[in-house]
Design a protein that fits this description.
Blueprint lengths: L1 H27 L5 H10 L3 E6 L4 E6 L8 H6 L39 H8 L2 H6 L21 H16 L2 H7 L7 H4 L6 H7 L3 H4 L36 H21 L11 H29 L1
Antiparallel strand pairs: 1-2
Length: 306
């Protein structure tokens, strides 16, 4: 009888967790606003169609690739709940668009966000020194797809590096912003051993930004002469990565999983040294089986006492 009660409580709790999970998933479902669908009817595709009143024919045109918005990425981004006209003039709601809109000053991130510290760091970076006021947030942070990547470090690294490579490794886009010769990413980093491994495990900004006690310093891109070139600056017990990539990971772990998990998962090795995957796996299995055995043993003792 007591066993049946325990099973009943177990099933009841399982249903509660299942229901809570479904409610959470439902909250995560985001639907595109109808006002935005009107814009994306054209800007969400490589081609768009419109009725030409002069020729009285429906014409099909190629959309400027820089004006194509990925609707999937938009719904996954930070601005998923915003309307297009929150940032763009409401005159864009009529087509053909008014020609003067192209030369009107556009809204920037600073119109809504208070990024005073970040703005100060950007003003000290080589990007601002080279391009002045022409260099703005949107060049690196696409407002139509920008999202906050937190605990998944592999995704965070790839996402951040793609921001840099989006210009520095794209001939056409690089020439839009400067007349300088496109930098050769691979040859520039010839001195760096295991390039592919480094590019996939650390962000560009680990070596190309100043180290301070604030994460906003990642916007202070230093001249290439000041970038990290000494292996020991990262591969040591006093690694610079602990003030950048790993401190970010630690803060996110503490925020998401509380202090204990962040402490347990904290890297206790010299940066760059390798842990044995199978030893870690076997250790976790042993711990898991041990705690499972203790739990089952405790349950049976409680049942026998009753």
């Amino acid at each position: 009888m007591r066993i049946n009660k325990l099973l009943y409580y177990f099933l009841f709790l399982s249903l509660l967790f299942f229901k809570a999970g479904n409610m959470h998933a439902a909250e995560d479902d985001v639907v595109m606003a109808e006002e935005n669908r009107i814009c994306l009817k054209c800007h969400g595709h490589k081609y768009y169609s419109f009725f030409n009143e002069l020729t009285e024919h429906t014409e099909r045109k190629l959309m400027n690739p820089y004006f194509v918005i990925d609707s999937v990425k938009y719904l996954q981004g930070e601005h998923q709940h915003h309307y297009c006209i929150d940032c763009h003039s409401d005159q864009y709601e009529t087509y053909p668009h008014v020609a003067e809109l192209k030369i009107e000053p556009k809204m920037t991130c600073l119109n809504c966000h208070d990024f005073e510290t970040i703005a100060e760091e950007v003003d000290k970076s080589v990007h601002y020194e080279a391009f002045g006021d022409f260099f703005h947030c949107e060049l690196c942070h696409d407002p139509h797809s920008n999202k906050l990547v937190k605990s998944d470090m592999a995704e965070l690294i790839q996402y951040n590096n793609n921001r840099c490579l989006n210009c520095n490794n794209d001939v056409d886009k690089y020439q839009i912003y400067t007349s300088h010769e496109k930098p050769q990413i691979l040859s520039t980093h010839d001195w760096l051993p295991n390039q592919v491994l480094h590019f996939s495990k650390v962000r560009c900004i680990e070596c190309h930004t100043a180290v301070t006690d604030t994460s906003d310093a990642v916007h202070h891109i230093v001249p290439k002469e000041q970038a990290v070139h000494n292996c020991s600056e990262c591969h040591s017990t006093n690694s610079k990565l602990r003030d950048k990539l790993y401190i970010h990971q630690l803060r996110e772990d503490r925020s998401e999983y509380n202090f204990y998990k962040s402490y347990i998962l904290n890297d206790a090795y010299v940066i760059g040294s390798n842990r044995n995957y199978y030893v870690n796996l076997i250790t976790l299995i042993i711990f898991g089986l041990t705690f499972t055995g203790i739990f089952i043993h405790t349950i049976f003792r409680i049942i026998k006492r009753k």
